[in-house]
Amino acid sequence: MEGMKKLLSFALIVFCSIALVSCGAKEPENSKLISTQENKDVTVGSSLDRINIEKPGETTINNQVGKPIEQTNNSDKITVTAIIQTNMGLIEIGLYGNDAPLTVANFLQKVNDFKYNGLTFHRIVQGFVIQGGDPLGNGSGGEKMAVDPMGKNNNKRGSLAMASSDQNYPISHQSDMQFFVNLVDNTSLDGMGFIPFGEVTSGMEVVDKMAKVQTGDNDKPLEPPIIERAYLKK
Question: I need a labelling partner for 11 at 20 to 30 A (CA). Which of 28, 32, 95, 200 fits?
């Protein structure tokens, strides 16, 4: 009888232990991680393809908008300078011919062929980027092109990179026409395949002015800034 009591007690202990482990392993319904960071849907290529990009916080935006561009890090990388003449002012761009030879060669060819003349900045996202160079003006124009190696430069405030039409594989769908200028440091773009090929060396105040124009649906400016012409600096 005494042996039977001990056996029952042992069985009860084992049962309770199993029950506790099972309860502890069960995931509460509300235990999944929830991000508190604000995300912004931003089209950087086709108007139909959207990618989720982490938008910088308001403090970061306020600290960077209007901030002068620092030239000390990349000024030695600039091999050629282009001018984008807009109806809101001149933007001077230094291009990284050695770090991004494919993209720079393509951009210069488009400039020399007058491809950007008369186009617009068709998408403006305050605190993120201004995007232009689309021959159709709606975010869906242009073709794909090969890309340069990643990791040589950062998507810092004032840097330029080409847009992409695919949210999953931006590096293999780089546009040969559409480009964007970073309004703030967008380091989240560095590992996604958006490769900087130059930076604004003069006229960032014009870029910031463009960023303040009124926009409508899909971040399209009600009066898009116009690229009157693009040319190489003598």
Answer: 28
pLDDT tens, residue by residue, 74-113: 778 999 999 999 999 999 999 999 999 999 999 999 999 9
Question: What whole-number distance in Å separates Cα of residue 35 and Cα of residue 227?
Answer: 39
Contacts of 85 (CB under 8 A, 6+ apart): 227, 228, 229, 230, 231
Tell which residue, 62, 183, 175, has the closest CA to residue 125: 183
Q: For the whole model, what pTM was predicted?
A: 0.73
CA distances from 122 to 11, 119, 197 (A): 73, 9, 20
Domains present along the chain, CATH in parentheses: 39-232 (2.40.100.10)
Residue 183 sits at the vertex; the CA angle it makes with 181 and 187, to the nearest 5 degrees, is 90
